[in-house]
Amino acid sequence: MRLLSPLSSNKSRATLVSMLCWFTLFTIFQFIDPFLSISHCSFPRIANDLEYDSEVSISKVLIIADPQLIDNHTYPGRLSPLLSLSKFTVDNYIYKNYVALMNELKPQTILFLGDLLDNGRESSDEYYENEYQRFIKVFVDPARNREVEFITSVPGNHDIGWADGVTEHSLERFGQHFGHPNKIIQKGNHDLILLDNLSLMNTVDKKVAEPAQSFLNTLRETKKERTRILFDHVTLWRDPEVQVCGASRESKKPFPISKGYQYQTAIDEEASLDILRAVRPDAIFSGDDHDYCQVVHSYRDSKGKEQRSLGVNVKSMSMAMGIKRPAVELLTLYNKPVKLEKDWILNNQVVKTKGEFLDYTFDTCYLTKPYVDIVAYVFLAIIDAIWLFISCVERKKRYVSIADNYSYDNFFESLFKNVNWLAFIKLSVINGLLAMFLYYLFTLH
Questions:
Q1: Fewer CB near the terminus (10 Å): N or C of the chain?
Q2: Percentage, residues of the chain above pLDDT 70
Q3: Is 52 helix (H, G, I), strand (E, B) or coil?
Q4: What residue ranges are annotated as transmembrane (predicted)?
């Protein structure tokens, strides 16, 4: 006695093949693709650093800018199911690349440059807490069993607002969850300076601006004994026609100098000069712009001596920030200066650095190309539907249709008549649910 009809056998085979295809595709895009992208990255080293052997030690800092986890307010008017899908897709993109970065590069410190959430500045406390837990799930949970230092206390304008839009409540709430800004973290031969330059620009509430201004005054009066690296959110002012960003920037337009509701693309010129003179940074890492930019800030210090600071805008890590290739920055800190054996190339121009000593270096690490996985999933879903449809055509009638019809029109008409539509619908639902369950197992949840 036959326990399974040919159609049942076809359906079982179709489901098995379908699940194998989905399993393979999920494995490729959730694990293999991020691994291959990150495998091209490494924390940069100065060429002759091994000259000092055991005397040299390094600290590896992973810099992440603008993850800006999208929420229910990011895309007004978008249907709730589509918004939920968008949130999940973006969170998962960040998560899978972040896990690959942790596994392959093993950073010792992870430093964020603000805009951790998309609507942190105006959300209710209850909603804020939910979004904070999302941040924990994406970034903190994967690193719980690792010896990693998290530095999340640089606020962005989406976290607390901009200038006069910053309130005491938004500032205090950010500090309670992510840490208070305006502080120095010493790492070996370096002072990592975390500045809230958003509150600094507030002109209507002294309680908001005072902590940042007091911090700058302290730095101004403190003797500089170590290399200073400044971390902030909004970049310092520059002349975009003169201080060009370089070839690594995606946009071919000059750096935008503009402002609007709760944002400004660069700190005012006078305030920028005051920050430079107070901090006297060797390098500055900023976020906010989402695209890469590298310039040199030239200024005269309080004694009239000309100084230079390297300024870097770090690309956003998110696929939803309008750039083709999200990225992170890899910063290597040395415990003692290492002699440079060659000149640096900055924005296609040679900078005379050969023979000088440097105790830090950095490089960009590009993440996986966004949307490639989505296109692949849609393509497989279409192929899967066709495969399921064919498997639901009764075997005998399938051959009769091919033999008795000599035109494509008659063939397809007969094929559609002979399909078991109820079986096709059931099989499509079952396979769809199984594929979704597989995706759930593979991705962030």
A1: N
A2: 86
A3: helix
A4: 374-393, 421-442
| Mean pLDDT along residues 343-369 | 74
Residue 140, in any domain of the structure:
yes
Which DSSP helix (H) or strand (E) runs through 132?
helix 125-135
pTM, full prediction: 0.90
Contact 113, 105 (CB under 8 A): no
Report the run of H or E that residue 375 belongs to, with start and end: helix 372-391
pLDDT digits (tens, 9 = 90+) for 324-339: 999 999 999 998 887 7
Q: Any alpha helices (H) in 201-334, and if so which ranges?
A: 206-221, 269-279
Residue 33 lies in a domain: no
CB count within 10 Å of CB 219 equals: 22
Q: How far is 70 from 72, CA to CA, in rounded Å?
A: 7
For residue 167, count other CB atoms closer than 10 A to its CB.
Answer: 18
> Where in the sequence is the domain holding 270, given as residue range(s)?
43-370
Of 340, 427, 337, which is closest to residue 385 (Cα–Cα)? 427
Instruction: Provide the number of structural domains found in the chain.
Output: 2
Same structural domain, 89 and 13: no
Per DSSP, the chain holds a count of helices (H) and strands (E) of 12, 15
Pairing of strands 58-64, 327-339: antiparallel
Q: What is the pLDDT of residues 118-167, one digit of tens each?
A: 999 999 999 999 999 999 999 999 988 899 999 999 999 999 999 999 99
Asked whether residue 30 is assigned to any structural domain, the reply reads no
Of 301, 300, 297, 306, give the one whose Cα is nearest residue 243. Answer: 297
User: Which candidate, 327, 427, 319, places its Cα nearest to that of 373?
Assistant: 319
Q: Are residues 366 and 405 in the same domain?
A: no
* Residue position matching structure tokens 């770090």: 314
Pairing label, strands 259-260, 149-151: unpaired
Burial 181-218 (b: 16+ CB within 10 A, else e): bbebbebebbbbbbbbbbbbbbeeeeebbebbbebbee
Measure the CA–CA gap between 156 and 112, rounded to whole angstroms. Answer: 10
